[in-house]
């Protein structure tokens, strides 16, 4: 009986943390040529009453792929100029009022077709009213397509 109560408590703990942070991801432009520059656009939504801390680091990572070339293997909130706001004496939180944009270039040997970019956001969340904090990860995907023709610079 005690084991069942413990398992139910663990399930409620897990369920109460779901949906803390949601990532809406897209790639602009949606259709890209080899050598073309683009950007990943991430809109971050946070559950009311939850804050995302700038320390320890908020990190965005991408799963390695052969189609896109990123300048860095991962990005922090400071890399992306995410605003840090003071929410009360000495406590800070990240403000995701604006979408995050991460630049990339399409690899010159990227195959033609539809591709999926996968990534994850690692973050540290807290709820003062509920008295908890935790480190968590949220995965995201974005679909894009590539053309075989390379970008031609006419300048």
Oligomer: single chain
Could you say what the CATH topology is called?
Answer: Immunoglobulin-like
Query: What value does the average pLDDT take?
Result: 86
Query: Termini, distance in Å?
Result: 75 Å
Kindly name the structural category. mainly beta
Q: How helix-rich are the residues, as a percent range? A: 10-25%
Number of domains: 1
Overall geometry comes to: elongated
What do these coordinates show?
With 155 residues, the protein is mainly beta. It has a single domain (22-150), classed as Immunoglobulin-like, CATH 2.60.40. 10% of the residues lie in helices and 55% in strands. The protein contains 1 helix and 12 strands. Strands 2, 4, 5, 7, 11 and 12 form a 6-stranded mixed sheet that branches. It has a 4-stranded antiparallel sheet with strand order 1-3-10-6, with no helix packed on it. A two-stranded antiparallel ribbon has the order 8-9. Residues 1-17 have low confidence and may be disordered.
Summarize the structure.
The chain is mainly beta. The protein has one helix spanning 2-17, and strands at residues 21-28, 31-34, 37-46, 51-52, 59-62, 68-69, 74-76, 83-88, 91-95, 100-106, 113-127, 132-150. It has a single domain (22-150), classed as Immunoglobulin-like, CATH 2.60.40.
List the helices and strands and how they pair.
Layout lengths: L1 H16 L3 E8 L2 E4 L2 E10 L4 E2 L6 E4 L5 E2 L4 E3 L6 E6 L2 E5 L4 E7 L6 E15 L4 E19 L5
